[in-house]
Write a structure and sequence with these properties.
By secondary structure, the chain is mostly beta strands. A hairpin with a 7-residue loop joins strand 24 and strand 25. Helix 5 packs antiparallel against helix 6, helix 15 crosses helix 16 and helix 16 packs antiparallel against helix 17. It is globular, with a radius of gyration of 42 Å.
Length: about 1450
């Protein structure tokens, strides 16, 4: 079995183009091609210098010029070593034959020969490089017969890779195309001729498979002689006949349940394909078929035999008595009708005693949907339209060569794993929770009896499946249906590719023609490059179609991993999402404009603080609609170099919305990030309605924003909220002023608006900051009225009930934006002079030089060994007591001798030592004073003796301590003499480049080892990367090729001559963002932060990192030490994305980049030139990648993020680069992923659906309240504030009554009302079905400011008893009821009064009236079509 799997996995083929499969079949022709030798200087000298153990081999692939499609499998010759040849031109001898046969007899079917050089790099990995390719014509252009003259020919070679043949500009004839460049004086000598001796073994070799004569072909005998070429004169092995009896298929958990689920999936897939529902009663299983064939790992040896399977009970009732007894004896262990049996005995005469020969079982189901209304079977002529086949299970068995008979039980297989028919197979039960024993049977089993003798079972009638005698290969042409083409098979099940059609055994074989996956996708998928599967594979799915690969002619190509299989692997295509990708910049466009004069007058009278310049004059007002002329020189020459950026949040106004909009919030807060300041979260602001609101007819009167104090009160007399950012020379780095001006000119500021009570996102607004450029003016201010836009996800297309959460269902969600309100905002820039403090020495600016020298580090500043290593201005040291210098020595000196090693905790600390020392001094003074008194002389003498003993002990201790620390102190002082300290400032994703000038201080040569203790600091080993950074930063120091000796995982080495100085390039780059502030932080914490709302914001205190580089000679002696201090600076965020996703799942998103020339920061290039884009992520657990899809194709950034537990918010950053060395990011994105608990609800429009959510208490008692993003459709019980006990479990009852059909998302938050913290969050996924409309009405109303109309309709109670009813509408603003509830007796009629309101716009509107019972279940639904004229 292992041998078969190895051969099967290594010989998967890419099928020909689907258009070729539709052409008439021709006889297959066999060929022998001998690649003799390669002439010419094809291998470049640069390759020989980079690689060692260089060899050369050839690769051959079949290619369809007409459709630009590679197919078959790439053949690879053995490598030939490149040895110095004396002859000119150089020649490499191959003499390698390969064989194949194909029925695609067309001049545009060619073989592409590629010359590949391989060798080992410095780290031992294998590197393969493409050196050129040639086009070998198989069929002549004059006639359809292949070239038959066995003569030597020369194949011309072209520059580049065979992938160039996929370019649309390379049309036939390819050899004469202007884009093809010949390699001079290079050619390949070959011979191509027909090989009729291969025809007898066609059944062992699949079509279009290129094989070598040395390759072992199962079923062939080894070749005679020493050549070993078994295909030159192939010889077949002797075959045996195997007999199979008593075939039983057992399905899990039962045959009835298995087939019921199968029918449900067929109905679901039919609805997805056809768009119309299919009645489950109209679909039936017409036939259960079993295909049994012999497979040698390359393909089926003969066309598989087809037999019909029937349920076991049907066989027991209808078959002979002997067969019934045998069935019963074989199924004693089984209970119930969950077994399929075969009535036939199978005879397999093509078996060979070889491990690669196996018997393959394929279980297929044939479905038929009768067209008659009575449900009877349809006529034969209509079967072709309605029948379809699907493979549901398969199994493979390798017979035991020594055994002659026996009984076998095999587990059935299914799902996405590769199978011999190369088709999709019905899914298998998930095995995540199953044991190994259960996994063997839960997909089903097949049981049978085998024998080598025809008399193995005398009670079994020899009933063979009919097989065409003259047929040795399965036909590639499907049978012609009598009337029309069959219906396309469901996408979620299986479609056999080249599935063998039965030999007239069943009627369904004549009606259903199998269609390959490649044929079904011919209208969707274009030709894929070599190594690309023709199927769009799901994650974890294996490419079933073939393995072809080519290499690019690039020295930086990724090395092949040594030890891989000889078969070439398929190159995976980038993941293409089903949903439409998010367009970068779509959320950052400034939406809004100049506020109206009425709004300005209203806001001005509210008493907002006035913005003044440095001279206490009002700042100049700028019109936001005026164009901005940006002059960088004027900004740099401005004397007011300090910029005070002021943001004033004035008011928030509501726009007119439909009835389904969320209620107007009472409090709001804002989150944003300005430049590289820390993320800002404002305190909660109260929305206060203006007094003039009732006097105006405006529909969008603004509500003032008022700061809420800690006690919950607010002062309406001081409206607005103001933030200030001081951007001056103290904040900006040298040369950063121009970057800040460029930031204001090009970037937009995105502001998120949140509901302060429910913590739900209201929407986002974006404002351009180009009007903040002062251009020499003292101060400017601009007022904006910004649209607050929210993104909503809804689904317009209907889905079948129960299919919302089914795996594999494609639910196209429509993403659209809704304007929630308007934000009134004032931005200002006030210029200030750079003030310098009097008397304080000005600190020198940080060095802008990118060359660090260690010349200044040599020398010793003097001083004691125990003195701190602080820099000194003078070489003079004042004597100090040792106890004052060294804390460890002080702790030893003042330890009481009687305590020994058992000292109290903390006694060794420096503070305790100083304290004890002072106490000892005081004690000595007191003893001396007492010794002077009469009668105390004895005590004084004792005290003096004790002091002398203590001094003696201290001196001995000091001497021992100095002797012990002398070596360490001397080494530390010498290390300080060779240490260079340097400070750099780095931001996220930006590479900080510098060079260290290392000088050899000795007169001897050294091999220096460079050791770095930080993963973010790296040595630049590539000379191309070094040259790029030199040009980028304008550095003109010397550059050397092959300067370092890399040693794999060990530290690199550098050779230094005596007294030589070299420049060593380094690069520091960090992708770690560090701790970030959450956007939904507690409002209580925010109030503690912003005690002074008018104070200027300062840059966040970023962590400081340290890195150390040690330069050691060969003997381990350090030559120099570089201590690097990295001050991390906040970074600029260009784009903010916010996603809501179910918890503990993977979020997969595609973000589409804008055209290259529109990206801020992109260098100027020629039109149409889109350089490659590179991405990196700050979170190593996030998969982030992008791939170039071709010229003039949009580029997408793919994200795959694992969401955490609810309500966690995961923040990370994505940096985008335009250079391969990732020097400077052109865009930085911030991504917020909100993890929510997912709840799926299937409901009916207008009818209440109830469910309960479990709430778990926390550590303390909390007062909580539930908030919904759609309170008109989703309500909770309790409605208001309730107590959540600690460590308790409580139910939150939720009622859902949707107003419109479709699928959409509703957010539900549980908030602590005291601390304003998010306790829990849910994402409710609604799948709403429309109700059954019983009556329809139509009325006409005038549009505009009319009075509306009153109407009446009647409703009759269909029940004999009195009933109470409730009335609801999906448009309550347009339709109101006279009474929302009524009661009517049994069989009586009630008149419902309706009040229709007018609408401003003309048009039509369909209004639904729901009549629900007392349990809020829908009884009837009326539809009223209102025409507004």
């Amino acid at each position: 079995m292992h041998e078969w799997h190895r051969i099967f996995d290594q010989n998967l083929l890419v099928p020909p183009h689907t258009q070729r499969a539709r052409q008439p079949l021709k006889e297959s022709t066999a060929f022998q091609c001998v690649l003799k030798w390669l002439d010419g200087p094809l291998i470049k000298q640069a390759v020989l210098e980079v690689l060692s153990e260089v060899g050369c081999h050839l690769r051959v692939s079949l290619f369809d010029v007409t459709y630009r499609h590679f197919f078959g499998r790439t053949w690879k010759s053995p490598a030939r070593p490149l040895e110095p040849l004396c002859r000119q031109p150089p020649r490499i001898d191959f003499s390698e034959p390969f064989y194949f046969h194909t029925s695609l007899n067309h001049p545009n079917i060619v073989a592409v020969v590629e010359v590949v050089t391989e060798g080992r790099r410095w780290d031992g990995t294998l590197q393969a490089l493409s050196c050129g390719f040639g086009i070998l014509r198989i069929f002549s252009n004059n006639s359809e017969s292949p070239t038959s003259a066995p003569q030597d020919k020369r194949l011309r070679l072209y520059h580049g890779s065979p992938r160039a043949l996929l370019h649309p500009l390379l049309q036939d004839p390819i050899e004469q195309n202007k884009h093809m460049t010949l390699i001079e004086n290079c050619s390949l000598q070959y011979t191509l001729k027909p090989h009729p001796l291969l025809e007898p073994v066609f059944h062992l070799l699949p079509e279009n498979l290129l094989v070598s004569g040395l390759q072992q072909i199962p079923g062939l005998l080894p070749a005679h002689g020493e050549s070993g070429d078994m295909l030159r004169k192939p010889r077949l092995q002797k075959s045996l006949t195997w007999y199979l009896d008593d075939l039983f298929f057992t399905m899990y958990p039962s045959l009835e349940q298995f087939e019921e689920e199968l029918l449900e999936l067929v109905i679901s897939d039919h609805f997805r394909e056809a768009g119309s529902p299919l009645d489950s009663g109209a679909l039936e299983i017409l036939e259960r078929r079993l295909c049994v064939g012999v497979h040698n790992g390359l393909g089926f040896v003969q066309r598989p035999q087809v037999v019909v399977l029937v349920p076991e009970l049907e066989v027991a009732l209808t078959h002979s008595a002997s067969f019934s007894r045998r069935v019963g004896a074989s199924s004693k262990a089984r209970s119930g009708n969950h077994t399929l049996v075969s009535r036939s005995r199978l005879q397999l005469p093509e078996m060979v005693c070889q491990p690669a020969f196996t018997i393959v079982f394929q279980l297929e189901y044939v479905f038929n949907s009768p067209s008659g209304a009575d449900g009877n079977a349809a006529a034969v002529t209509s079967l072709s339209n309605l029948a379809c086949m699907h493979m549901v299970r398969w199994a493979v068995w390798s017979p035991v060569l020594e055994a002659s008979s026996g009984r076998v039980t095999l587990p059935l297989q299914g799902g996405i794993q590769p199978n011999p028919s190369h088709c999709l197979v019905y899914k298998v039960p998930p095995a995540s929770m199953s044991s190994e024993e259960v996994k063997q049977v839960e997909s089903g089993t097949v049981q049978f009896q085998y024998s080598l003798s025809p008399e193995g079972h005398l009670d079994t009638p020899v009933e063979h499946a009919i097989r065409p005698k003259a047929e040795q290969r399965p036909s590639r042409k499907p049978p012609t249906s009598p009337s029309s083409l069959p219906a396309p098979p469901p996408r979620g099940l299986t479609t056999p590719q080249d599935s063998p059609v039965g030999p007239g055994l069943s009627l369904s074989q004549l009606a259903a023609s199998p269609q390959s996956p490649a044929q079904r996708r011919s209208a969707e998928a274009s030709s894929k490059p070599p190594g690309s599967p023709t199927l769009s594979l799901a994650p974890g799915e294996f490419p079933l179609e073939g393995r072809i690969s080519h290499l690019e002619a690039d020295l930086s190509q990724t090395a092949l991993v040594p030890g891989t299989s000889t078969a070439e692997q398929l190159q995976e295509l980038p993941f293409t999402p089903v949903h439409a990708p998010i367009i970068v910049g779509a959320w950052t466009r400034s939406s809004g404009g100049k506020p109206s004069r009425a709004s300005l007058a209203l806001l001005r009278s509210a008493g907002f603080p006035e913005i003044l310049d440095a001279n206490k004059q009002p700042a100049e007002a700028v019109d936001p609609t005026d164009p901005v002329k940006f002059n960088p020189q004027k900004e740099e020459s401005d004397c007011l170099q300090s910029n005070e950026i002021v943001l004033q949040f004035l008011a928030f106004s509501r726009v007119s919305q439909d009835d389904q909009a969320a209620p107007w919030p009472q409090t709001v807060y804002f989150t944003f990030q300005f430049y590289r300041f820390p993320p800002e979260t404002t305190p909660r602001l109260q929305l206060v309605e203006l007094d003039e609101a009732g006097k105006s007819s405006s529909a969008s009167l603004p509500h003032l924003l008022v700061l809420i104090h800690k006690d919950g009160s607010f002062d309406a007399g001081s409206p607005g909220f103001q933030l200030k950012y001081l951007v001056g020379p103290g904040f900006l780095r040298p040369g950063e002023q121009r970057w800040f001006a460029r930031y204001l000119a090009l970037q937009t500021l995105q502001i998120d608006i949140w509901d302060g009570d429910s913590l739900l996102l209201i929407g986002s607004a974006a404002v351009q900051m180009k009007h903040l450029l002062r251009q020499g003016r003292p101060a400017v201010q601009v007022s904006h009225e910004l649209e607050v836009v929210a993104t909503e996800h809804e689904q317009d297309t209907m889905v079948v009930s129960g299919d919302v959460t089914r795996f594999g269902c494609v639910k196209p969600i429509n993403v659209h934006t809704v304007v929630k309100g308007r934000l009134h905002l004032t931005l200002a820039n006030v210029g200030h002079l750079c003030e310098r403090r009097v008397g304080s020495p000005s600190s020198p600016p940080p060095s802008r030089s990118r060359v660090i020298s260690n010349d200044g580090a040599t020398g010793f500043s003097g001083g004691g060994l125990l003195t701190p290593g602080a820099p000194r201005l003078k070489n003079v040291v004042q004597a100090q007591k040792l106890a004052d210098v060294d804390s460890e020595l002080a702790a030893l000196l003042f330890t009481p001798p009687w305590q020994g090693t058992r000292r109290p905790q903390g006694a060794g600390r420096e503070g305790d030592a100083v304290c004890r020392r002072k106490l000892e001094r005081m004690r000595a003074v007191r003893l001396r004073e007492r010794g002077a008194e009469p009668g105390r002389c004895g005590h004084g003498a004792l005290a003096q003796q004790s002091i002398r003993a203590q001094h003696t002990r201290d001196l001995q201790l000091i001497a021992a301590y100095r002797e012990r620390t002398k070596a360490e102190s001397i080494a530390s002082a010498l290390s300080m003499a060779i240490t260079t300290r340097h400070t750099i400032r780095a931001t996220l994703g930006a590479a900080e480049f510098f060079e260290f000038a290392l000088r050899n201080p000795d007169n001897t040569q050294h091999t220096v080892t460079i050791s770095i203790d930080s993963a973010e600091l790296s040595l630049i080993l590539d000379s191309q990367e070094w040259r790029y950074f030199k040009e980028l930063f304008g550095l003109h120091t010397p550059l050397e090729e092959d300067m370092f000796h890399p040693r794999g995982s060990l530290a690199p080495q550098l050779f230094l001559r005596p007294r030589e100085m070299v420049h060593i390039p380094f690069k520091f780059q960090t992708f770690s963002a560090g701790p970030r502030a959450s956007a939904q932080a507690s409002a209580e914490l925010r109030l503690e932060k912003y005690t002074d709302a008018g104070s200027s914001r300062k840059s966040s205190t970023m962590p400081t990192k340290h890195a150390k580089v040690l330069f050691c000679a060969g003997n381990g002696k350090p030559l120099a030490v570089l201590c690097l201090t990295v001050e991390l600076q906040p970074h600029v965020v260009d784009q903010v994305f916010r996603f809501y996703h179910p918890e503990l799942t993977f979020l997969k998103k595609a973000i589409r980049l804008l055209p290259w020339h529109t990206l801020p920061g992109a260098p100027v290039g020629m039109p149409g030139e889109d350089p490659p884009v590179y991405v990196r992520c700050s979170d190593p657990n996030v998969i982030c990648e992008t791939q170039n899809m071709g010229p003039r194709e949009p580029q997408d950034v793919f994200l795959k993020v694992a969401s955490g537990p609810s309500p966690e918010i995961k923040d990370f950053f994505v940096t985008i680069y335009a250079d391969r060395w990732l020097a400077t990011p052109i865009q930085t994105w911030q991504v917020h992923l909100h993890s929510l608990q997912r709840v799926d609800v299937s409901c009916v429009t207008g009818q209440r659906t109830r469910l309960a959510l479990v709430l778990r208490g926390m550590q303390t008692v909390r007062k909580v309240k539930a908030f919904s993003s759609h309170p008109q459709e989703l309500t909770t019980d309790p409605k208001g504030v309730f107590v959540l006990p600690p460590h308790g479990v409580q139910d939150l009852h939720v009622g859902v009554r949707p107003r419109r059909a479709g699928s959409r998302f509703v957010h539900l938050n549980l908030v602590d009302v005291d601390a304003h913290q998010l306790v829990a969050s849910w994402l409710v996924c609604l799948s709403c079905r429309p109700p059954l409309i019983s009556k329809a009405f139509e009325i006409t109303l005038p549009a505009g400011a009319g009075k509306g109309a009153n109407k009446r309709i009647t409703y009759t109670n269909p029940y004999p008893s009195p009933r109470a009813y409730r009335l609801h509408s999906d448009h309550p603003r347009l339709l109101q009821f006279k009474e929302d509830a009524f009661q009517v007796g049994g069989g009586e009629t009630y008149t419902i009064g309706l009040r229709f309101a007018s609408r401003q716009k003309a048009g039509e509107e369909e209004i639904l009236i729901y009549i629900n019972d007392h349990e809020d279940k829908n009884e009837e639904t009326f539809c009223v079509k209102v025409i507004y004229q």
